[in-house]
Amino acid sequence: MTALSINLNKIALIRNSRDTEYPSVTMHAARCIAAGAHGITVHPRPDQRHIRVSDCFDLAEMLSVEFNIEGNPFAPAMKSPRRGVSDYPGFMEIIRQIRPAQCTLVPDGDAQLTSDHGFNLQRDGDRLAPIIAELKNLGVRVSLFMDPEPEQIRLAKAIGADRIELYTGPYAEAFGAKQQNAVLQRFIDASNTAGEVGLGLNAGHDLNLHNLLLFKNSVNQLLEVSIGHAFTVDAIEMGLDACIKAYLRCLQ
Ligand SMILES: CC(=O)[C@@H](O)[C@H](O)COP(=O)(O)O
Ligand SMILES: NCC(=O)COP(=O)(O)O
């Protein structure tokens, strides 16, 4: 069964729209776990637009499932965006202090609305390699956020990654359109390359209850999906417990 890791970014986004602690990120994590989620994912961005540094430490204290922290390893320290919120110490400092089960490195810039591309390892591989080595020495599984490009995926293995996370935005955009099968084939080919070189396969971004089953049944040995945006909206409509179970049914 493919593991379901729920991304709680959007719970934090709602919380940050008021000067309160409601909705609670940790309470939603506990609810998702109780309903059957296999992991929790967060993406603490330097501007702390949603997940804050304090959320990462609060979650690390209480999680009984795998904790996956995503971010740009080159993201520098940044002053707090508002009173009562701690400064951002730099992404790698968060990981050094928390040492989550998995760290998914993502090449996001601060001006991006959301994650929208994978790494270019021809350009960034040499400076990523020592970061990957440090994370593995800390006992953290390393996954790289990648586009479905076999050559790039081979480079991910060469620089020491344990897994890749295929950026599924283009698949989600093509789903139901005439180019769906051609786009899906790129992901199938990429998953086969990952298997050939011994990389574990994760996937995420814009996956939902409509497009997940086809993706999961098409690619090779999908170990984990991380889902947050669509999950949050679906949970409003269905209820959190029923929503978790609906996503789990797609992953059986
Ligand atoms: C890497 C990825 O695709 C998502 O995990 C990312 O966390 C989405 O970030 P936002 O929730 O800020 O859009
Ligand atoms: N890595 C993908 C993730 O954590 C959640 O992406 P989305 O479901 O919010 O698009």
UniProtKB/TrEMBL annotation:
Positions of the record's site feature: Transition state stabilizer: E165
Segments forming a coiled coil: none
Catalytic activity: 3-amino-2-oxopropyl phosphate + 1-deoxy-D-xylulose 5-phosphate = pyridoxine 5'-phosphate + phosphate + 2 H2O + H(+)
Alphabetized GO MF terms: pyridoxine 5'-phosphate synthase activity
UniProt key word RNA-binding: no
Pathway of action: Cofactor biosynthesis; pyridoxine 5'-phosphate biosynthesis; pyridoxine 5'-phosphate from D-erythrose 4-phosphate: step 5/5
Entries under NCBIfam families matching the protein: pdxJ, PRK05265.1-4
Self-association and partners: Homooctamer; tetramer of dimers.
Name of this chain's protein: Pyridoxine 5'-phosphate synthase
